[in-house]
Amino acid sequence: MYHRKVQVNFGITPTSLIKSLRDLISRPFGQILLLQNLGLLCLILSAAPAYALSTREAINNVEEKFGNIEAYKAVYRLKTNTADQSYTTTGMVFFKRPDKIKTEMMLILKQPMNQVIVSNGEIMWVKIQQENQVSKIDLVNLKESFGESYFDYQEPNMCKPFKEAERSTLKFIGTEMINGKNAYVFEAKPSRLQIAQGNLPEGSRIKIWISTNTGLQHRVSVFDESGKEIIQHEFKDFVINQFINDYEFEFKLPSNSKVTDITDEIKDKMLEVLNKK
């Protein structure tokens, strides 16, 4: 990683500095003068301008850190407040590379609704707890049909940095604390894919908070054209790179459940969306 070197030249060498300090200490009140001079030196150094990361450097830092993440679990909350709908979803997310995912969520409407999504990377299961209905998606089929475009459409890692953003529009604006953690902050336009999927509205702007330590996305806020926050997706209480048994990502089908295979339906939707991108 490239770091710009900042050099400060005070016109002295280490040898001459030591000699000057010895001479100063030997003089009357020399120790007091020494402290005063050291204080002045600290003031000069502290006044030097801090090195500011460029957008490219901040992105590189994030992606380098993110590359070290093999597994995690976290608490998440999704708040939506638009003219059409207002609701909150809370839950837990488990992830393990390359694409194992499990989410346990509660959608808070007039009546709470619990949903579980489990994927071992080959089959995804979706179960609404209040109903005796289970949906099944053949991910192997989709991956064979769409290749790398599958991961563009269906990114399994919910905390992957910049996944909602049009990358060419990313702008690093500084660092902030979020839930007691230091985070890089970026602004961007939403990606064309997110708009085509109907996840984010045309003309909106997004703000992203990403951990400086892990490269994991901690919060995304979406603002409409008037500047009103309409969506906030937040992750916290991470447990990172600790062992998660593959059993977590295997779905146990409840007895008497009605299973509906929606692979073809998802395939048609993917074709429609990817052609719009």
Please list the strands of the largest sheet in the order they lie side by side: 7-8-9-10-11-1-2-3-4-5-6-12
CATH topology of the largest domain: outer membrane lipoprotein receptor (LolB), chain A
Low-confidence stretches: 1-22, 29-49
Span of the ends, CA to CA: 33 Å
Overall shape: globular
SSE order, one letter for each helix or strand: HHHEEEEEEHHEEHEEEEH
Number of domains: 2
Estimate the helix proportion, in percent: 25-40%
CATH superfamily of the largest domain: Lipoprotein localisation LolA/LolB/LppX
- In the CATH hierarchy, what is the class of the largest domain? Mainly Beta
How many strands, what sense, and barrel or not for the largest sheet?
A: 12 strands, mixed
Q: Please work out how many helical segments DSSP would assign.
A: 7
Alpha-beta content class: alpha+beta
Question: What's the average pLDDT?
Answer: 85
Q: Return the CATH architecture of the largest domain.
A: Clam
User: Beta fraction of the residues?
Assistant: 25-35%
Radius of gyration: 26 Å
* Strand segment count: 12
Explained architecture:
- The chain has helices spanning 14-26, 30-47, 55-66, 139-146, 149-153, 192-197, 263-276; strands at 71-81, 86-96, 100-108, 113-119, 123-128, 133-138, 171-178, 181-188, 205-211, 217-223, 229-240, 258-261.
- The chain has 277 residues and is an alpha+beta fold.
- It has two domains: 14-47, no CATH class; 57-276, outer membrane lipoprotein receptor (LolB), chain A.
- A hairpin with a 3-residue loop joins β2 (86-96) and β3.
- α1 packs antiparallel against α2.
- The protein is globular and about 60 Å long.
